[in-house]
Amino acid sequence: MDSLQKLIHQLIESGELISATLSQRRKREPDAFNKVIIKPVELKKQLHYQFAYHYNNKVTHENVPAAEAERPLMELFEQSMRQGLLCTTEADYQVLISKKYKVSILTKTATKTEADLNHNRKKRYILDEGEPVPFLVELGIMNADGKVFAKKYDKFRQINRFLEMVQDILPSLPEDRELTIVDFGCGKSYLTFALYHYLNIQQRRPLRIVGLDLKADVIQHCSQLADKLNYDKLQFLVGDIADYNELDQVDMVVTLHACDTATDAALEKAVRWDASVILSVPCCQHELFSQVENDALSPLLSHGILKERFSALATDAIRAKLLDLMGYRTQLLEFIDMEHTPKNILIRAVKGSAGDTTTMWQEYSVFRNMLQARPYLENACRDLLPQETASEAAL
Ligand SMILES: C[S@@+](CC[C@H](N)C(=O)[O-])C[C@H]1O[C@@H](n2cnc3c(N)ncnc32)[C@H](O)[C@@H]1O
Q1: How far is the CA of 211 from the centre of ligand 1 (A)?
Q2: Is the domain 150-394 a CATH 3.40.50.1000 member?
Q3: Is 336 in the pocket of ligand 1 (CB under 6 A)?
Q4: pLDDT tens profile 332-382
Q5: How does DSSP assign 17-44, residue by residue?
Q6: CA-to-CA distance for 9 and 74, rounded, in angstroms?
Q7: A Gene Ontology CC term for this entry (predicted)?
Q8: CA–CA distance from 98 to each of 2, 105, 243, 371 (Å)?
Q9: What is the 8-class DSSP label of residue 229?
Q10: Distance from the CA of 293 to the center of ligand 1, in angstroms?
């Protein structure tokens, strides 16, 4: 094993290693990984090696700082894998280990180039192209070899962007119990499946996810797919958000492009559950359009298209302020939308005080009165908000 140890040390220390593929398990075990693919990746501006462990029906990832990668790679050869192909721009090294641990290393012509090295080191998505992910294959986003279909690349990026946002809020979710997540208005559920895959399979977090939608045919299709993928803690139900009363404790509420005030109904549920995290991308905000009035804003409001966009933005400003008032720290972030329309704002609210509620209520009521708005969310959550005084109402 000394010659192999020396080679691995040299390739990692010099940063020459472009990829390593380890295969042929020493002992066949049905639940163990049967292949490991290792690639350099840049994370937080530092070189890491990503170890992708391929099992029969899943792939898990571990990112190891380059300085610490030598030991786990060597251990894989020592403990479980009998074959390896280590690639650099200079040469490929084929490693073969006999049953009695005799090592042979064959040096071959390089099959990788500098371009492969740079490609591997570029920013990586949470779900990587080139590695088949069962739900993405089933949803027709990639083929069985992990190649993303050209027409589905936008969807692939959107899913990854969503998962990056989920990754950011992971520390805000409870760690001491099974997580409960509800996706309201889940529709075809691309992002619901992505959430399940990321949290349950990649992050190994115990959880259950409920997807709810009005459309029975879509829900039936999603349920069949969850069964096929063996996602046994992912449940799809037909129902209206406002009537959903089946759970007592929910840790995270997701609602993506639920129409008009369906978003507000979802936000109300989330607040009443005291959910730790809310991720919401609103859509089709018609409510304020029919309410908003202010003579001083007539140059804006007299143009239908401007009034529509202004009403949508004002609705999100109102939602964010109301969530702050109800004990959340709320941010509005850009979300990639498939149609590149203005429907690209994600409301991310994390449980925790956003500041002085008296000042926030003052700011909120001035804004709402200026627009003569009567927001659904305020009405629905009146018992959770400060009581309005007669002088505020008259403002
Ligand atoms: C534009 S689709 C978005 C689907 C999915 N969340 C996504 O982002 O791809 C909106 C979905 O919300 C559902 N929906 C709208 N109002 C609803 C309500 N009150 N209760 C449950 N589902 C609702 C619709 O049936 C539709 O499937």
Answers
A1: 10
A2: no
A3: no
A4: 988 865 454 556 889 999 999 878 899 999 999 999 999 999 999 999 999
A5: --EEEEEEESS--TTS--EEEEEEEEET
A6: 9
A7: cytoplasm
A8: 14, 12, 64, 77
A9: T
A10: 29
- Ligand 1 within 6 A of CB of 210: no
The number of the ligand 1 atom at minimal distance from the alpha carbon of 262 is 19
Q: Kind of pairing, strands 252-259 and 179-184?
A: parallel
Partners of 238 in beta bridges? 213
pLDDT at residue 395 greater than cutoff 70: no
| pLDDT tens-digit readout, 125-164 | 789 888 889 999 999 999 998 888 878 888 888 899 899 8
- Give the pLDDT confidence of 61-117 residue by residue, as tens digits: 888 988 899 999 999 999 999 999 999 888 999 999 998 999 999 999 888 876 565
Ligand 1 centre from 240 Cα, in Å? 10
Distance 213 CA to ligand 1 centre (A): 6
Q: Which atom of ligand 1 is nearest to the CA of 242?
A: 19
Classify burial at 185, counting beta carbons within 10 Å of its beta carbon; exposed 0-12, middle 13-18, buried 19 or more.
buried
Instruction: Kindly state the tokens that stand for 108.
Output: 């071959």
Q: How far is CA 14 from CA 25, 222, 253, 365, in A?
A: 28, 48, 46, 62
CB 371 within 8 A of CB 293: yes
Q: How far is the CA of 64 from the centre of ligand 1 (A)?
A: 40
Contact 185, 212 (CB under 8 A): yes
Q: What is the CA(183)–ligand 1 centre distance, in A?
A: 10
Tell me if 83 sits within 8 A of 34, measured CB to CB. Answer: no
Taking the CA of residue 190 as reference, the ligand 1 atom at the shortest distance is 9
> Are the C-beta atoms of 32 and 25 separated by less than 8 Å?
yes
* Residue 122 near residue 42, CB atoms below 8 Å: yes
Task: Please return the burial class of 133, using the count of CB atoms within 10 Å of its CB with bins 0-12, 13-18 and 19+.
Answer: buried
Rounded to the nearest angstrom, the distance between the alpha carbon of 184 and the centre of ligand 1 is 7
Nearest alpha carbon, ligand 1 atom 4: 187
For ligand 1, is residue 185 a contact (CB within 6 Å)?
yes
Residues 6 or more apart whose CB falls under 8 angstroms from that of 71 comprise: none
Which residue's CA is the nearest one to ligand 1's atom 25? 214
213 touches ligand 1 (CB under 6 Å):
yes
